[in-house]
């Protein structure tokens, strides 16, 4: 019951705050006035019973008006109810004064209540109107009383006090309601002011944050290097939240983990550490992509022991996102127990993280751009180097390459192989058209080629045949044509791989294969296939020979079981080497062992890593033929050697005595004119001696040719005597050239054919005199230069023209003359070399152009042991 009464008496609540306030005042005033008036009605009913005069109808009318106003208020017509109540009350009060004592009635004082009530409910304008009407009514009552139009009576003091008290009570209620309304208004204004101040403070703080964000954004976006940018981001973030402890983790390129790139405060020691997904704050933020606030880190279920030991209290982690992709995590921490993160700080860090992520992404793009620029620079350098290498390869390539224009076939470039293969001269050919160079048999063929390459862009001709320019030599090549663009000009890159030699080789191979097939059909060899361990696997019979036993008796059996031990081991050794080296191995064997009446040749060739083929041929007849041939060859070589030596001696060695004779004949003429008989006799003697030596040599050669022996009997000879004999033979040339010959003393004794050894020295001295050049003091030395393998090393040295190093080996060849216009046949030094080598020695030369030559040779001092 009390709750229902409370709800009945409670004022209605509306969405409009002012409407609710007016309804509250009306409700309070109406219920208060109704309660008071009902009390007065009861009181007056008693008084009426006593006095018989009671204005009860007026009071009940007022109560009805108030009740009607309450009904309007409940239905939401607050302003209408206010106007109704004020107007009705004013009319009732005016009616009461009109019916009663006029200006002297207490109802006139009630005008004050109505005016205050209207100002409280309807504002000063309506209250002014009500006040004006009230004043007008008072003056009407006053004028009517003045003119006698109304009469009045004076109430008793009790009644007057009663009415005045009622008015004062109503005024007090209105004043209370007015003060309460003003108090509530002031309280609301105070709350609104505080809220406004709080909002202004919040806006100012947000303005400060936005200013910081703007400054941060401008500072971050102006940085291009990633690491300094990360340092700046973390410093700004710590400054915004007034802490020294923070970190930035970035996702690794492979997306496997987070890596701490920068840290401040106690977190700086963890730089470089890796964090997996859902590990700690940063790992959880990375997976969720949403900010995370941990106000008590020590009690958090995913807290890390190291960070707990560091004293973390509150931790804020925000993702660094580009679009929907998390590229890293920014984490800020408070160590102080009383500090926590607010929602405003979280929103601030979200905005800051968005700017930071953009700046990091820009820095990465900048670094990537710088890297690409560097790589492009490197590529350009490599491209230039590649172009240079291509140019070198182009020129050095064995494949003939040329570049021609597509329209008229103008030759633009070619490599050395092309000029060599085609026969064109690059100086005369570059810039000329295909028609001018006669590259095609007809221009119709070229038009067909252009149409084809435009359609296919690439043409391969594996059997291109052409004739070289001018020489008309036939060549075969593999031709490849490619369309290329060079400086906005369509060109044809032509490559020709010369296969002329391969073509010739193929033809030769075909002929060889035909011959091979013919040979295989008539091959006399027996062919066996054997395994790696020597087991016979297969057999191919020969056209001429059969094995000593039927194949059924040796197939599947091992070589060791069928052949003597020596032959089996020899065969298995050859088989092993063949399978290891993949090369053919051959050996010969005779049967039966110890007698070797019949001989065989076995050739082993690998078929695979597990088997080989053995071809066996009967070579008994060949062995006999080879033996007889060796005998005949040896005899023929001996005869040829003798014949060569005889020819060389007759054509070369007899020349020196003849020159001596001819030279001294000139001296004889001079001696005859001068009358020098002593010298004349000496010259005649020397001529006679040279003639005798030549006769002796001819006689010996004739005797050698008759008996078939070339060398004389070996003997021990003093080398000085050999040198003197040789000097005497060429004395004429020496005198003619004014040469001085010095023979070293105490030269050793040598063992050999005296005649041939004299020929050695004779040829060497004669050559020295022949090529002495323009020396003013020509000189020849003959002596000893140590020993080699117990053989003395002799030398013949001159100070003549000398011999270039490249000719040191060539001069010992037959008929090799360095000066084609010089006398002689060019076999002198070859004859010297042969004689020395027959005696078991060797000969060589040391010489420099313009200084002279020294010929060294070794000779034995006794017969071979």
Account of the protein in words:
The chain is of the alpha+beta class. Helices cover 55% and strands 18% of the residues. The chain is built from 26 helices and 23 strands. The strands form 5 sheets. A 6-stranded antiparallel beta sheet has the order 3-2-1-6-5-4, sandwiched between helices. Strands 8-7-11-10-9 form a 5-stranded antiparallel beta sheet, sandwiched between helices. The protein has a 5-stranded antiparallel beta sheet with strand order 13-12-16-15-14. A hairpin with a 4-residue loop joins strand 12 (526-531) and strand 13 (536-540). Helix 21 runs antiparallel to helix 22 (677-707). The longest helix is centred in the first third of the chain and has 65 residues, at 157-221. The chain is rod-shaped.
What's the structural blueprint in terms of helices and strands?
Layout lengths: L1 H8 L7 H35 L4 H19 L3 H22 L6 H17 L1 H23 L10 H65 L4 H15 L4 E7 L6 E7 L9 E2 L4 H9 L3 E3 L10 H5 L4 E9 L2 E10 L8 H54 L3 E6 L5 E4 L1 H7 L3 H4 L4 H4 L5 H14 L1 E10 L6 E13 L2 E10 L1 H22 L4 E6 L4 E5 L10 H4 L4 H4 L2 H17 L3 E7 L6 E9 L4 E8 L1 H34 L1 H20 L2 H31 L7 E4 H11 L1 H6 L3 E4 L5 E4 L1 H17 L8 E10 L2 E8 L29 H11 L4 E6 L3 E7 L7
Parallel strand pairs: 18-20
Antiparallel strand pairs: 1-2, 1-6, 2-3, 4-5, 5-6, 7-8, 7-11, 9-10, 10-11, 12-13, 12-16, 14-15, 15-16, 17-19, 20-21, 21-23, 22-23
